Structure formats: C-alpha cells, structure tokens
Amino acid sequence: MLRIAVPNKGSLSEPASAMLHEAGYRQRKDSKELVLVDPENQVEFFFLRPRDIAIYVGSGRLDIGITGRDLLLDSGADAEEVLALGFAGSTFRFAGPAGVATGVKDLEGRRIATSYTGLVAQHLADNGVTPGALTKLDGAVETAVQLGVADVIADVVETGTSLRNAGMEVFGEPILVSDAVVIRPTDAGDDPRADQFLRRLQGVLVARRYVMMDYDIRAERVAEAVALTPGLESPTVSPLHSEGWVAVRSMVLRKEAQRIMDDLWAIGARAILVTNIHACRL
Ligand SMILES: Nc1ncnc2c1ncn2[C@@H]1O[C@H](COP(=O)(O)OP(=O)(O)OP(=O)(O)O)[C@@H](O)[C@H]1O
Ligand SMILES: O=P(O)(O)OC[C@H]1O[C@H](OP(=O)(O)OP(=O)(O)O)[C@H](O)[C@@H]1O
Ligand SMILES: [Mg+2]
Domain Histidine biosynthesis HisG C-terminal: where (predicted)? Predict the structure, then answer.
C-alpha cells in the first residue's frame, strides 16, 4: 500500500482532506483518527502534524505527503516538492515596528524571533548576515517584539491582519512564497503507485481551474470563435442540423469564462453553456 502523510491540524488540514476526497480517496470522519486505510485505492493515510510531515517522508518511512513549501524547506529533511496544490498560499517575511529595517542586510547583529529558524538561518547565511540572536518560538511570534524578546520577526503572512494588529510592517523582499505541496523522498525513483496518486491530484487541479464551454456559432465565424476558445489541444467542432451552424466544445480557464462568453456573444455565438468538470485525466 502507498503510505501517505496528511496534515492533521491547522491551515493545511481541511483543504488537503477536501482535495483527497475529490480525488476519490476515503477521508476520516473524526478529526481524532490518526490512521485511515483505504483498501479500495490501496493507500494508507497517516494524519500527522504539518511540521513533522517532511521528516517522516524524508526518512523514507512514508512514501509521499502533503505539507507547506515553507515547512518542507524549514525542516531540512531529505524530501522534495513534486507538485504544488494551489491552496494554503502565504508569503514568509521579515517584519518589525515601522522603520526598524529596510531589508535583510540591516539585520546584522539584530535579534530575530521566528517559528521557522531553519528557513531564516539559511536566508541570512545566503545573504552573508549574522544575527545577534535567532530565537525559535512556537507561535504568536508577533508579540515577541512588544515583549522585548526580539527586534524583528520572520513569519507567515497571509492577509497581513496579524501584523497590522501588532503594529508592525513587513520589510525587504519576501523570503519565500509558499503553497501546499506534495513531497516525496529526494531521488525516490519511479513508483507507479505514487505516479497514479499524483495524476489523480493533477486531475483535481485541472477540474478546479477549468470549465467546459459549449456554444453554437455560424460556420463562417468559427475561426474567430476558436481563437477565443483554443482549448488545451484543439476544440471539438461538430456540424449542427441547421445548415450553416456548428457546435463548439472547449475547455477554458474558469476565471476567464465570463469574459470569453461576452466576447463569443459579440461575434454571434448563441446557446453558450458552461459546465463544471467533475474529474479528468489529461
Ligand atoms: N494564515 C495562515 N497562518 C498560518 N499558516 C498558514 C496561513 N495560511 C497558509 N498557511 C500555511 O500553512 C502551513 C502552516 O500550517 P500549520 O498547521 O503549521 O500552522 P497553522 O495553520 O498556523 O496552525 P496552528 O498555528 O494552529 O498550529 C504553512 O505552510 C503556511 O504557509
Ligand atoms: O496574515 P494573516 O492572515 O494574519 O495570517 C498570518 C498569521 O497566522 C498565523 O498565526 P496563527 O493564527 O496560526 O497563530 P500562531 O502564530 O500561534 O501559529 C501566522 O503565524 C501569522 O501570525
Ligand atoms: Mg500558526
């Protein structure tokens, strides 16, 4: 059986389980369940702390896992990203009271607090900066400056609300742009079971990003219409019973669907229908 690590708590947990469910896997009903076997799909899920997942996968005890890119890099584990999943997006940034610093180069000798010491130490080293102190905290890192434990912090920023509430501002370039990712042990080699798991998740990603668009258009305008809806390979064009009309079917990006419908209407397309893609393999 393929052994898969799934986040059991926090920002990654619910969207990861939702995606696995959409990909046809059993998911736990009770958040206290730590192991779940899905015999039909020949997989076993281990619900683990997101921060620990890279360690388990890097050790080779588990074949594959879902975690955050930032958590993977922070761990230093022997695991690598194989697919980005498009949820739990965040940036990882330095922040402090207004004017405290303008970039990483200003942090020489300064005290920094973070939950991601691996990531920050690497970034400082890459920039040739030696901090006065690098303190690891479990959470609520924003308060470290107010309480005098650090001069600046480095933390996950999603909406920026936590920083604003703490009266702090980001400074310098983002250290990292993060996303939920699928990881495997580094140089794990070919595994058809892992490939099948990845294909299923890719199918969900495509089904979320694209919709199917159908419309009728006069044959003499089909070239213009197809330029608006080129599809992934090439759209299907079929004759209609009424002479001079064709039906076109094509995948389009969900976020562009309304604009494309307006543009198609303007060139004479009618009966424009948009439907969700439930699942796919491209
Ligand atoms: N608003 C957010 N807060 C924290 N992590 C976030 C947020 N948005 C996305 N993430 C991502 O979620 C992962 C962190 O998940 P984790 O479960 O460790 O922390 P959490 O969601 O803050 O949960 P908790 O602090 O309750 O343990 C990281 O990959 C991070 O980039
Ligand atoms: O930019 P925002 O949308 O405000 O989100 C980012 C904040 O959310 C997380 O904190 P969390 O609530 O997980 O508390 P923690 O620091 O105790 O982990 C993270 O550590 C930031 O503080
Ligand atoms: Mg947190």
Answer: 207-278
Quick one: pLDDT at residue 105? 97
Among all bound ligands, the one having the nearest atom to the CA of 155 is 2
Q: Which ligand is nearest to the CA of 72?
A: 1
Ligand 2 centroid, distance to 256 Cα (angstroms): 32
For 10, 46, 87, 255, 275, the CA distances from 17, given in Å and listed in that order, are 12, 12, 12, 24, 24
Closest-approaching ligand to the CA atom of 87: 1
Distance 156 CA to ligand 2 centre (A): 7
* Calpha distance 16→66 (Å, rounded): 7
- ipTM higher than the 0.95 cut: yes
Q: How far does the centroid of ligand 1 lie from the alpha carbon of residue 180, in Å?
A: 10
Cα within 13 Å of Cα(77), Cβ side: 26
* pTM for the whole structure: 0.94
Give burial (CB, 10 Å; 0-12/13-18/19+) of 86. Answer: middle
Q: Residue 191 has what pLDDT?
A: 95
- Of 6, 8, 11, 52, the one to substitute when testing ligand 1's pocket (max ligand atoms within 8 A of C-beta) is 11
